[in-house]
Amino acid sequence: MYDLLKGLRIVEGAAFVAGPSCGLYLAQLGAEVIRFDNIGGGPDFRRWPLSGAGDSYYWEGLNKAKKSVALDLSRPEGRELAQRLATAPGPDGGIFVTNFPVAGFLSYEALSALRPDLICARVMGWADGGPAVDYTINSAVGIPLITGHPDDPRPVNHVLPAWDLLTGAYAAFALVSAILSRHRDGKGHEIRIPLSDIAATSLANLGFLAETAFGAGDRPRMGNDLFGAFGRDFLTADGTRIMLVAITPRQWAGIQPVLGIVDQIAALEARLGVDFAADEGLRFAHRDQLFPIFEAAMAQKALSDLVPVFERLGVCWGPYQPLSKALQDPRLFAGNPVFSDIRHPSGQTYSAPGFAGTLPGMDRQPVRAASRLGEHTDEVLTTVLGMSDGEIARLHDMGMIAGPGKNEQI
Known about the structure:
It contains 17 helices and twelve strands.
């Protein structure tokens, strides 16, 4: 947690990954992020993985450091409250993150009528408004058809929702850009960010589009081979599988003496008339002849013998290990200052991350847990909308709003 965005008020009306991750990143940089949900929770409130008591680790992970308001969004009065929160006055307010549809009560047209300088980042599925999630976009752009081993024709879905996470980060950067623009000219903006466009533009930026259009067509499956350079999984003498990569000339030069294959590589270069150090693409093009040399050498070396030399020579490698083992890795989790052990709404105490970046010279603030659903309903209605105790009590009596106690009973 850092305070770079302290003073900004972001209202979030979103569910699942992309929208909530946008709000999470902004909250971790010090913004006040107020998330509103239906009383009893939105569609992601009980999403797996769950604790033994049925609380969602997913929900409390994506909503750390946010304030929570619970409204009855099925009724006009509850929808009006959501609109008022999104458009509440103040020079550092009027900033809204949502994945609600383009049309409807949270449309930009409806909200900007209440606050013309509103800034809204709207996460979408397809750019035309059609529904989509990360996995359906991923299948549509063809990634699962080039993932996996060449002897298995089945598509392989990625278990990490990469397009969702990219979209959330893109939305956060776009919002901050729009805020800077509003400081200059006073104008609001709606920024529509479809998963489909994030996926399509990302693949085009990485050269996939040009490769398919002007090359040999769709990229084939190649298992764990690193496209365009040297890299693959190898098994060591003690049965440990690692990913070994050589992209730079230094990495390529460092691997060979460790494995004792300098002469073999030189002989192969002479026979082929190539210089593998000069062009990483050549290492990929001739990988079928390189890999057997590396396989035989790796099979003679225990990982415990390789690691010190790898580290000294800057060899690029990584172990294949389950997350349960990665939790003990100080480079990732154990002892990583990005993480803190905190108590969560589920009642469980476990390690949780703050902002993933580090600002040298600035104190990192403690990680703040997610709120209980509706925990800040009364506070937010008082401080943001200026409602009186009597007005808030009336809304409670009507069942229009709820605090944490009410939500826990549903």
